[in-house]
Specification:
This protein is an all-alpha fold. About 75% of the residues lie in helices and about 0% in strands. About 35% of the residues are buried. The model has no long low-confidence stretch (mean pLDDT about 95). Keywords: RNA-binding, Transcription, Transcription antitermination, Transcription regulation. Involved in transcription antitermination. Required for transcription of ribosomal RNA (rRNA) genes. Binds specifically to the boxA antiterminator sequence of the ribosomal RNA (rrn) operons.
């Protein structure tokens, strides 16, 4: 498996997590929608599924790890940033095969791709705090 296949899986997973957050649809329905309506060329589909299932199953635990490090109320974090930091925190906390530098870098790249102008700075700072408190 190439690193780019995991990167594409993360990109798709962030979009699916974002959709799940906004719609509150059943996770299986969100997964099915993404697997049938998105291009899966070069995507590590198994990793996409693992990320989506893992983040949604452990969302309360992930949010509790994030909240103490925020400079604002969690409800004020944009849905895009929430999806990104939830995914990266899941990798940092539960995916021991993913080096922390990779998880942080991927989070930053996702924020640059999907977030507001300075989103990547927020994501970087928050994920650094998560790593230091592990």
């Amino acid at each position: 498996m190439k690193p780019s296949e995991r990167r594409k899986a993360r990109r798709l997973a962030v979009q699916a997590i974002y959709s799940w957050q906004l719609t509150d649809n059943n996770v299986a329905d969100v997964e099915h929608e993404f697997l049938t309506e998105q291009s899966l060329d070069g995507v590590d589909v198994a990793y996409f599924r693992e990320l989506l299932a893992g983040v949604t199953a452990k969302v309360a635990q992930i949010d509790e790890l994030l909240k103490p490090h925020l400079d604002r109320d969690f409800s004020e974090v944009s849905p895009v940033e929430k999806a990104i930091v939830r995914l990266a925190t899941f990798e940092l906390t539960f995916k021991k095969d993913v080096p922390f530098k990779v998880a942080i870098n991927e989070g930053i790249e996702l924020a640059k791709a999907f977030g507001a102008d300075d989103s990547h700075k927020f994501v970087n700072g928050l994920l650094d705090k998560i790593v230091k408190n592990k």
